[in-house]
Write a structure and sequence with these properties.
This protein has 209 residues and is an all-alpha fold.
């Protein structure tokens, strides 16, 4: 995966600062008591800058950026002879691990606080599911591109891409729900791996039944 340039790195840091400010303030004062202006002040940005990155305080709290983050690039040389679903699972596992940034104590603190608020406001977790649904078209394009580069025919892509999308959607729904309920604050990538393992077990048991 390509590394971000200086401009992109600065944008990521600004977005992270706003997100951390939103989570910290909501955790301390309650969701309804926090305003966009307070979040911007805590993050040391203007309200105008806030709205360049997030539509509202809900999105800032959840980390739902105004600009969609590009889907990862795949070097298929690393996946010679590997089926498409396994490639997609591995690519997104790596991306989730990068987002979790396990070694960063400040990120761990933000995630823990967010989990505690989500336990009191489960309706916010539904917003994350809605975000996932809005990304389906981009994700289908991503899967189709991987399959095309692997040499699959257009008929095979039409037949299998939406099935892979449905399988990955099940993984994400399981992992996000478990992540939202996990007050211990385990990384999202851990919940994703468990969802993959659980689904694989169910399918394997069905084959041997």
């Amino acid at each position: 995966m390509t590394q971000p340039g200086l401009r992109e790195t600065k944008k990521q840091r600004t977005a992270a600062a706003i997100e951390a400010a939103a989570v910290s303030l909501v955790h301390a004062h309650g969701f309804d008591a926090v305003t966009v202006e307070q979040i911007a002040e805590r993050a040391d940005v203007t309200p105008r800058t806030f709205f360049n990155y997030f539509r509202n305080k809900d999105d800032a709290f959840l980390g739902v950026h105004r600009e969609r983050e590009p889907l990862p690039e795949v070097d298929l040389a690393d996946y010679s002879g590997v089926d498409t679903l396994t490639v997609v699972i591995d690519v997104f596992r790596q991306k989730l691990r990068a987002l979790d940034r396990d070694g960063d104590a400040s990120i761990q603190s933000v995630n823990k606080k967010r989990h505690e608020v989500l336990a009191q406001h489960p309706e916010l977790l539904q917003r994350e599911f809605e975000k996932m649904t809005s990304l389906e078209r981009d994700f289908t394009s991503f899967v189709s591109d991987v399959m095309r580069r692997q040499g699959h025919t257009e008929a095979e892509i039409a037949r299998d891409s939406y099935t892979i999308l449905a399988i990955m959607g099940a993984f994400f729904h399981q992992s996000f729900r478990a992540w939202g309920e996990d007050l211990g604050g385990e990384p999202l990538a851990v919940h994703f791996d468990r969802a993959v393992e659980n689904t694989t077990r169910i399918l394997r048991d069905r084959e041997t039944a």
